[in-house]
Amino acid sequence: MRVIIIGAGIGGTSAALALQKLGHDVVVYDQMRENKPVGAALSLWSNGVKVLNWLGLGDEVAALGGRMDDMAYYEGFGGAEMCRFSLETVTTQTGQRPYPVARADLQALLMERVGTDRVHLGRKLVAVSEADGIVTATFADGTTDTADVLIGADGARSLVRDYVTRADEGGTRIERTYSGYTNFNGLVPVDERIGSATQWTTYVADGKRCAVMPVAGDRFYFFVDIPQPSGLPYDKQADGKRPLEEAFAGWAPGAEALIAAIDPETSLNRVEIWDIDPFHTWVRGSVAILGDAAHNTSPDIGQGACSALEDSFALGIVFATNTLGVPDALRRYEKIRAERAGDLVLRARKRAWETHAFDPAVTDAWYESLRGADGVGIIRGIVGNIEDSPVNLGGGLL
């Protein structure tokens, strides 16, 4: 079977590997011209790591991952410890240690494993069509390619999604919803003034968040949230980290040390956070979508990349076990994934509402719950996002 995948991100390349494992002829196209992913790093919780293990990348991913033993919250002003606890329970219950990883490192590994001759960059998709069971992809340079199946892993503004939902034929055009905050993220050297080198450290106050996770190479992945309207002007060259210096003026020494360490020229991304209401039309004939194209989510529970990896696992399973043809297998993939992925979108949305002071009373109550917390409730939430993953095959928690 010949497969075209549109998008060389985490979802697209992992799907390519899943289908290559089955012996299929897979080619990946992406409009980017080099590996410059949006966002500096990502949280690979146990469900995402398990998919990568299944793809044969366990040792490599472990080497890319930071060792995150503990989790701690601190008062944004003053820096007093609110709670600190071990994350070992997540590992023992789920059977896999989670790893924060630099996104570019993981994406480069996946692209290399797919094969440089199989990944074609600088190719922008402009149209999809299907006739007599053959799917045709047309690109902006006028070239075309054909296959038995096409998978759209082309992100939140997916053209393949528009084809699947018949948006240009009077069908539903899926629109994104602004989550109410802007995220700044990047990589900085590990600095114990910010937090322990083996700890997920978060400072919180006024609906803002300033956090770091360890990744390989003695680096922290930082992610900083500022509730604000969408569309505010920002010029990286002119503004740099000034919005962070203004938003976090007077914060705890650890937060100030982080912002001082940020080098906008080296690693600083600014991303408005949007998501998409869950929908269940992921397939049309021999065409399907996965990743952000199907379930664009806010990062508030750290399951965006993991959910895309679950898509790839499910896609591999349905093509390995079903024999009634491509449309049948894709419908089974949709049935496995749409409800769970949509549920994670809503969980992340609820978490964003709780933590970003869109209702100050709700956020104040959350802050109060953190003070002196033993971590049991927080870990229950983390594990709850993992336990129903299809990769667990019904036996995820012990």
Question: How is the secondary structure organized here?
Answer:
Blueprint (H helix, E strand, L loop, with lengths): L1 E5 L3 H11 L4 E6 L10 E4 L1 H9 L3 H7 L5 E6 L5 E6 L1 H7 L4 E4 H12 L4 E3 L3 E7 L2 E6 L4 E4 L1 E4 L6 H6 L11 E14 L9 E7 L2 E8 L3 E9 L8 H4 L2 H6 L5 H9 L7 E8 L6 E2 L2 E3 L2 H4 L8 H18 L4 H30 L4 H11 L5 H11 L12
Parallel strand pairs: 1-2, 1-11, 2-7, 4-13, 11-18
Antiparallel strand pairs: 3-6, 4-5, 8-9, 9-10, 12-15, 12-16, 13-14, 14-15, 17-18
Helix pairs in contact: 1-5, 1-11, 2-11, 4-14, 11-12
EC number: 1.14.13.113
Catalytic activity: urate + NADH + O2 + H(+) = 5-hydroxyisourate + NAD(+) + H2O
Cofactor: FAD
User: Main sheet, how many strands, which sense, barrel?
Assistant: 7 strands, mixed
Rg, nearest Å? 21 Å
CATH-assigned fold name: FAD/NAD(P)-binding domain
**What level of helicity do the residues show?**
25-40%
- What CATH first level would be assigned? Alpha Beta
The best one-word shape is: globular
* Name given to the CATH architecture: 3-Layer(bba) Sandwich
Mean pLDDT: 95
Number of separate structural domains: 1
Question: Main attributes?
Answer:
FAD/NAD(P)-binding domain; 7-stranded mixed beta sheet; 6-stranded mixed beta sheet; 27% strand
How would you characterize this protein structure?
By secondary structure, the chain is an alpha/beta fold. It has one domain: FAD/NAD(P)-binding domain. The protein has 14 helices and 18 strands. The chain has helices at 10-20, 46-54, 58-64, 88-94, 103-114, 159-164, 236-239, 242-247, 253-261, 292-295, 304-321, 326-355, 360-370, 376-386; strands spanning 2-6, 25-30, 41-44, 70-75, 81-86, 99-102, 119-121, 125-131, 134-139, 144-147, 149-152, 176-189, 199-205, 208-215, 219-227, 269-276, 283-284, 287-289. Strands 5-4-13-14-15-12-16 form a 7-stranded mixed beta sheet. Strands 7-2-1-11-18-17 form a 6-stranded mixed beta sheet. A hairpin with a 5-residue loop joins strand 4 (70-75) and strand 5 (81-86). Helix 11 (304-321) runs antiparallel to helix 12. The chain is globular. It starts with a strand and ends in a 12-residue tail after the last helix. The model has no long low-confidence stretch (mean pLDDT 95). Keywords: FAD, Flavoprotein, Monooxygenase, NAD, Oxidoreductase, Purine metabolism. Its cofactor is FAD. One of its GO terms (molecular function) is FAD binding.
